Amino acid sequence: MTIHRSIIIGLLCVIGIAAHAVTRTVSLDGSQQYTSIQTAVSASSPGDTVLVYPGRYLESVIINVQGLSLVSLEAITGDPAYIDSTVIDGNRTGGGIRVESNMQNISIRGFSITNGKKGVMLRETSTSSITNCSIFDNAAYNGAGIHVSWCTTSLSGVKIFDNYAYNMAGGIYIYGYMRDAYVNFDPVNRCSIYNNIAGAGQDIVVHSIHNDIHIPLDTFTVANPTSYYVAAQESWGTDFDVTMDVLNAHHQEINHDLYVAPDGNDANDGLTPATALRNIRTAIYRIAADSLNQKTVHVLPGIYSRTTNQQIFPITLKSWVKVKGAGMDATQIVGEMDPLYANVSSYVSLNVFRSYFQDHASLQDMSITTAGFHNCCAIYGYKEESLHLKNLRMHGLSPDRSAIIHITFASNCLWDGLIIEDFTTEQKGFMCSDGYITGVIRNSVFRNATSTFVSDEVWSKPLFWIVTEGEIVLENCHFDNIEVMDDDGDIISIGFTPFPHDNSYRFVNCLFSNLRSHSRMLIMASPNHPEMEITNCTFSGNTSDSYIIMLNGNIRITNSIFHNNSPYEIAINQMPESGEPSTITVDHSLFKGGYNGILRVPNTTINYLDTNIDTDPLFQGGDDINNPLYYSLSAASPCINTGTADTSELNLPPYDMAGNWRIWDGRIDMGCYEYGSEPWVSVDDPTIPHIPAVSLDAWPNPFKVFTNIKVNVPQGGLGRAENASISIYNIKGQKVKTIALDPSKAGEQFTYWDGRDGDNRLCSSGIYLLNLTVNGRNVSSKKVTLLR
Predict the structure, then answer these.
(1) Mean pLDDT of 715-724
(2) Cis previous bond, 314, omega within 30
């Protein structure tokens, strides 16, 4: 199309651009004044117009001229075809368009902006308008489509789609730095924002502003936006509302379980394993959040990584959606950083999973590791209610700047069956909460970790660090083989916010073994005079130059074992700001050093009862000091049947550290193990009718490598045992394996189970049920506990 200059000037007057201002024209073929947009912009004076002819301009454009108008021929013809044909391509080396700070009255119209590290960046205190542009396929840390930073802009007829932000806001990121950020969306010539990807707030994030934002759109990703798509993050001193008015939805979420497989295809419907999707993120994106009937994304066995099958990290969890693998060993997630961000900053961490403002999200039954990338976080969470993590193994990560589980502001968490192991770090570790969390951590293992950080000036960050303003419960957890090298470093720190709250923590049935620190193993402190309980825990084999635990408040230690290599077992933290002296009561416990094992400080009341003992606990021992059963009680232990007679107020689980009955032989033992106890059977376990002379036994139990199985099925009342087998089930009732027996043998016969399923895959730690079936009839059952 040929457009004469006189026509251009006339049309520019019509659209409000003064005729006396200079118009600089750009075309790639050399037919206009400039062949580069940036060259024309740099040559401009305030109030000028840069008119760009069709073409694909491989460049980034920086606007630092007041009152500049950057337009395509769409602005003077009204022909939308010029939007698609006039392309600013960042070539992944820079941003598309950047409006510098303090630039006023900038106008951008009629472009496709793509392939940049950001589509459009609007910097502080600028004012601008963007009209009739398509912004797509850009990638950035925050705000891949448009990044609005503490400024004012108007958007009209803008389409923002298919962009990817590693951290927040694939579509548009509105950040106020705790100031005003005004973004005015045209209610007539409406914008569309859809199908963007981000670690949090897929399409829109509004962050730390003072003013409300109303967003009328023609098309959005879904008809009813949730915090998965639109996130409003307030900071101290900010209070704002984000409202939306959506006319059309880009897609309908699927209210059905979905399946993902390593060799799946995102073109499939995902409704069955045979039609599985490939990308975990795609399945979460498509599935509906149903609070009345929670749906599941089933992640089928295999390896999931960026290299293997194009997974996109971080994988963002969604409210009321369960993401469930096939088991710790079967489903393996290998996090890999997008190369675009691998060297952005030493402070950028690899997040494998994220939960950002997502309530009742769930992740379970898989392992999480990385492909050699340092500074890794398996799960990052922010402001969620009831985050459920279950049966997860996190290993081989390098949590230099971000803990393996990094959670900020989360309440009513339930984390069950976690294994976090095998790493060395200089900064963070197993867990970190920058803001308060509350909830329960149970049946979990934290082991084989070292903090190499050493400094004469600053303290070493704890490897397990929780801040709370409510209740934290650790139940049946094992901390083993962990070392902090700094002379002022703690392995575990549980602190409380300085605000007045009813704070409490409880450690129940926990084992702390082989921990090494020059300072303390565990510190628990709060200015709010918290309630602290340590019940049926074992602290043994730990080494410290000072003491094992420092704590304050109203403290009660019951039925526990303290037998360590340190001058003192416990020290009291005075915490004078609490305004109240601490009180510690120790009863029915084995305490090395007795009363003198407590480092006394002024204004502290110590109630050391005569029910305590000071002697060798006589553990089972063995060749492997890191085997949890090393610290179980031998037959000669003085801790057997010496716990408190009344356990009604102890809030104990029904099982001990080994999965056996917590109270056995009429009296509870000291420590986290119950001597001579049998595997715990819940009320939900099947009741097997008794058949005389039939027996099923297994030993050792618990076991790590294999358990021997002895079966006695005499001939007679059952008839000839023509079809006898042992079926192994997990605690969810799923069959793991069937072991056939020899039908020709009457009486006793022996076999074994090596902790593998029918496909020869290692089963995860847990309780399993052995069912003896003869001629189609279930005749006996036995519980066994597998420890990995």
Answers:
(1) 54
(2) yes
Tokens standing for residue 465: 């660090």
The CATH number of the domain covering residues in 695-786: 2.60.40.4070
pLDDT average, residue stretch 250-271: 95
From the list 138, 40, 39, the residue with the least C-alpha distance to 96 is: 138
Q: Which of 573, 625, 624 is nearest to 598 (CA)?
A: 573
b (16+ CB within 10 A) / e for 522-531? bbbbbbbbbb
| pLDDT recorded at residue 347 | 60
Integer Cα distance of 197 and 139 in angstroms:
9
Dihedral of CA atoms 342, 346, 350, 354 in degrees, nearest 10, equals: -130
Helix (H, G, I), strand (E, B) or coil at 13: helix
pLDDT, position 577: 61
At 446, which helix (H) or strand (E)? Answer: strand 445-451
Q: What is the mean pLDDT of the chain?
A: 87
For 92-239, list the strands marked E by DSSP. 97-99, 106-109, 112-114, 120-122, 127-131, 134-136, 139-142, 146-149, 152-156, 159-161, 164-168, 172-179, 182-185, 191-194, 197-198, 204-209, 213-220, 230-233
Q: In the predicted model, what is the mean pLDDT of residues 248-274?
A: 95
Could you give the CA distance from residue 205 to residue 714 in angstroms, rounded to a whole number? 70
Nearest to 48 by CA among 73, 34, 69: 69
- Cβ-in-10-Å burial (0-12, 13-18, 19+) of 647 comes to middle
Main-chain dihedrals φ then ψ at residue 770, nearest 5 degrees: -95, 120
Least confident segment among 512-516, 702-706, 784-788: 702-706
* pLDDT, tens digit (0-9, with 9 covering 90-100), for 293-315: 999 999 999 999 999 999 999 99
- Cis before residue 581, ω within 30 degrees of 0? no
